[in-house]
Each structure stands twice: as structure tokens, then as C-alpha cells.
């Protein structure tokens, strides 16, 4: 399929003039963006956006604002097709330390996702869904284990799937590649690509220091940084990887110009 055939329609997640201050200190300033629903022929194409920025610049704070966990000092974050102001709980969060319930099996940890879903299901329906997901994401043999018996990468996969099962279309992931070896990173990448193509409106926002892996699966990259003489971080640059021809290409790292793109992003940090 020609990866270049796509259209963008209505807004799904937008920030309008978002600023965040603690006392007199400005952390975030004039954040404006809009993630639009991307369509590609004959497939469910979700959205994947990476948020890149130096340590301490304000990524976590923006993350919290986007998820409705903290209110911005000014501005608003709007989500979904009706563009209502985001409420806490509407956006799934996969934190860096992927917290699971340690005294419950993986099966029960996943069931918690379904128990919290908006649609109420019978236990038999839940079992069937969990079995299917475990199969798809190579966790079947681990369902009766406890989180402590899984590797970091496996726990992270459970944490991501748990969020998918809640039915959240919008999922924020904090440093999904950190602390994983190269093979595990590949697995997470495959998982994120799969999640982003499960449903048309699924939208992943990835906060990462790992520019190359994040960009390789994104359709958009935002660079969060400070502009000369102004306090507070803002989105200094937005890269539209669909328009640049780098989106949805499994072998994008080998594409001419991709490594230059990574260098260009680094130069803005
Ligand atoms: N509750 C708070 N009160 C005052 N300042 C805060 C508060 N929380 C965070 N900050 C400041 O906000 C700034 C941004 O922090 P944030 O955690 O968002 O950075 P980050 O980009 O996520 O960093 P890292 O990549 O290291 O996790 C920092 O200067 C931090 O000291």
C-alpha cells in the first residue's frame, strides 16, 4: 500500500493557549496543537505523536495537563470528536514504572482494565477478550503468573494492554522504551503500532528521550523547548512525518534523510 495516501479530518486532541505556572515560575507557555484523525484507505489508522524534550523541560507537566490530572493556569485541552475539555480518567496513562497490582495475576490485572471499561461485560465475555488479547500480544503463557514473575518488558506490555482494555482511545505513554533491551524495544514498538491500528481514533502520545525509536513509529513529532529570552517551554517545532513520507514505514530508519531528521530534532533540544 502506498503510505502516502492519507487524509486528516476532525480534531481529536487539541491544546489551546495552554500555560502552566507554579507561583511566579512559568513551566509551560502558549502550547497550541491539534491532533487530527488520520484516515488511510482500507485500514484503521490511529494517531501516534511523540513529545521530545530535554530533561526537566516540562514533558511530565504537559503530560499531566493533557490527561486532565492538573489544570493549566491558562488555556484548555479538548478531546474527542465533540472537543470537550478533558476530564481526569478519560485518557489512559502508562507510567514509566508501569504499576501493576502485584498480588493479582496477570489475568486479573488485565481484567481490571475491563472492569473499568465504560461498557459492562459478563465474566465470560471478559475472559474471551482477555484470552484474545493475550494471544495477540504473546502473553498467554503468563496469564496465571504474578507481575513479579515477569520481566520489565513483559510487565510494560501488560500495562499498555490494560489501558487498551479500559476502552480509552487516548493513551499517554511515559518513556515506553526506557530500561528495555533492543529486542524488548522492538516488541514494544510492534505493540504500539498494533494498538494504534486497532481502531481509527486510537491516539497514542509518547513522551520519550529516545528520539529515534519514538520518531520511527510516529506520524508527528513535537519538540518541547524554550525560546530565546522567554520563560517556560513551548512546542518549538512540529514535524509532520506523514507529509515528510516517514510515517507508517517499518523500515523507516533506512529511508534516506531519516537520520538527518533525527539529527535535526536533536539540534533543537
Ligand atoms: N509541583 C511543582 N512545583 C514547582 N515546580 C515544579 C513542580 N513540578 C515540577 N516542577 C518543575 O517543572 C519543570 C518541569 O518538570 P517536568 O517533570 O515536567 O520535566 P520533564 O521534562 O518531564 O523532565 P524529565 O525528562 O527529567 O522527566 C522542572 O523545572 C520542575 O522543577
From TrEMBL:
<dbReference type="InterPro" id="IPR003439">
    <property type="entry name" value="ABC_transporter-like_ATP-bd"/>
</dbReference>
<dbReference type="InterPro" id="IPR003593">
    <property type="entry name" value="AAA+_ATPase"/>
</dbReference>
<dbReference type="InterPro" id="IPR050093">
    <property type="entry name" value="ABC_SmlMolc_Importer"/>
</dbReference>
<keyword id="KW-0813">Transport</keyword>
<dbReference type="InterPro" id="IPR017871">
    <property type="entry name" value="ABC_transporter-like_CS"/>
</dbReference>
<keyword id="KW-0547">Nucleotide-binding</keyword>
<dbReference type="GO" id="GO:0005524">
    <property type="term" value="F:ATP binding"/>
</dbReference>
<protein>
    <submittedName>
        <fullName>ABC transporter ATP-binding protein</fullName>
    </submittedName>
</protein>
<dbReference type="InterPro" id="IPR027417">
    <property type="entry name" value="P-loop_NTPase"/>
</dbReference>
<keyword id="KW-0067">ATP-binding</keyword>
<dbReference type="Pfam" id="PF00005">
    <property type="entry name" value="ABC_tran"/>
</dbReference>
<feature type="domain" description="ABC transporter">
    <location>
        <begin position="13"/>
        <end position="251"/>
    </location>
</feature>
<dbReference type="GO" id="GO:0016887">
    <property type="term" value="F:ATP hydrolysis activity"/>
</dbReference>
Amino acid at each position: 500500500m502506498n503510505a502516502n495516501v492519507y487524509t486528516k479530518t476532525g480534531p481529536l486532541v487539541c491544546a489551546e493557549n495552554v500555560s502552566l505556572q507554579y507561583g511566579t515560575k512559568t513551566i509551560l507557555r502558549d502550547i497550541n496543537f491539534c491532533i487530527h484523525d488520520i484516515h488511510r484507505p482500507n485500514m484503521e489508522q490511529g494517531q501516534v505523536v511523540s513529545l521530545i524534550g530535554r530533561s526537566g523541560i516540562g514533558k511530565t507537566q504537559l503530560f499531566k495537563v493533557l490527561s486532565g490530572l492538573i489544570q493549566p493556569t491558562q488555556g484548555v485541552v479538548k478531546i474527542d470528536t465533540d472537543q470537550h475539555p478533558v476530564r481526569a480518567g478519560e485518557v489512559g496513562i502508562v507510567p514509566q514504572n508501569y504499576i501493576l497490582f502485584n498480588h493479582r495475576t496477570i489475568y486479573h490485572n488485565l481484567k481490571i482494565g475491563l472492569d473499568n471499561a465504560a461498557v459492562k461485560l459478563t465474566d465470560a465475555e471478559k475472559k474471551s477478550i482477555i484470552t484474545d488479547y493475550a494471544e495477540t500480544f504473546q502473553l498467554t503463557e503468563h496469564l496465571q503468573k504474578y507481575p513479579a514473575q515477569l520481566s520489565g518488558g513483559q510487565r510494560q506490555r501488560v500495562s499498555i494492554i490494560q489501558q487498551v482494555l479500559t476502552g480509552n482511545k487516548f493513551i499517554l505513554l511515559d518513556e515506553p522504551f526506557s530500561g528495555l533491551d533492543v529486542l524488548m524495544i522492538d516488541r514494544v514498538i510492534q505493540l504500539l503500532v498494533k494498538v494504534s491500528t486497532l481502531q481509527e481514533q486510537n491516539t497514542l502520545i509518547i513522551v520519550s528521550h529516545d528520539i529515534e525509536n519514538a520518531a520511527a513509529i510516529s506520524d508527528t513529532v513535537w519538540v518541547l523547548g524554550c525560546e530565546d529570552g522567554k520563560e517556560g517551554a513551548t512546542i518549538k517545532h512540529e514535524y509532520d512525518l506523514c507529509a515528510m513520507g516517514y510515517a507508517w514505514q517499518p523500515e523507516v530508519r533506512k529511508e534516506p534523510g531519516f537520520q538527518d531528521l533525527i539529527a535535526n530534532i536533536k539540534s533543537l533540544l
